């Protein structure tokens, strides 16, 4: 079995940081209406640092694994680092396979690179990340990717 498939299965069978916890400043609930995946995600911040991410994810192995990876790659990181991770994950997942992902930035998230070739599954992988952006927005933070218009390479 491919290493990346094993990582997805490992995260879906033994999700990291699963279960809703307190304290938290922001909570969001998202549903993928295409397939029925659901996630409730809570975030606890201390200033510009994400102290905890907890979630309850019901759905396919891709959405559960993505939530687990999100928690691993967000807890203990600054909002700026979380913004960079989210942008890299979103870029990889919406690239239709052209962006293999940067392990330095997204860690185990590179295991989800193959999902980019299946547009119906991209929503599954992005569901927890959309919930994270909403939960952080409810804390007053903004981790949406910065606009690229006007930038030069």
TrEMBL record:
It comes from the Bacteria. One of its GO terms (biological process) is iron-sulfur cluster assembly. InterPro entries: NIF_FeS_clus_asmbl_NifU_N. Residues 4-124 form the NIF system FeS cluster assembly NifU N-terminal domain. Signal peptide: none annotated. One of its GO terms (molecular function) is iron-sulfur cluster binding. PANTHER family: IRON-SULFUR CLUSTER ASSEMBLY ENZYME NIFU HOMOLOG (PTHR10093). This is Nitrogen fixation NifU-like protein. It comes from Barrientosiimonas humi.
């Amino acid at each position: 079995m491919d290493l990346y498939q094993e990582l997805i299965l490992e995260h879906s069978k033994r999700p990291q940081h699963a279960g809703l916890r307190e304290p938290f400043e922001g909570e969001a609930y998202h549903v993928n209406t295409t397939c029925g995946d659901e996630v409730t995600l809570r975030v606890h911040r201390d200033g510009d640092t994400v102290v905890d991410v907890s979630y309850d994810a019901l759905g396919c192995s891709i959405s559960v694994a993505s939530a687990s990876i999100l928690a691993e790659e967000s807890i203990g990181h600054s909002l700026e680092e979380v913004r960079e991770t989210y942008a890299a994950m979103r870029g990889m997942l919406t690239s239709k396979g052209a962006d293999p992902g940067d392990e330095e930035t997204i860690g185990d998230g590179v295991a989800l690179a193959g999902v980019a070739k299946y547009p119906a599954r991209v929503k599954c992988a992005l569901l927890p990340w959309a919930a994270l952006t909403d939960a952080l927005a409810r804390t007053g933070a903004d981790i949406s990717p910065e606009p690229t218009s006007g930038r030069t390479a």
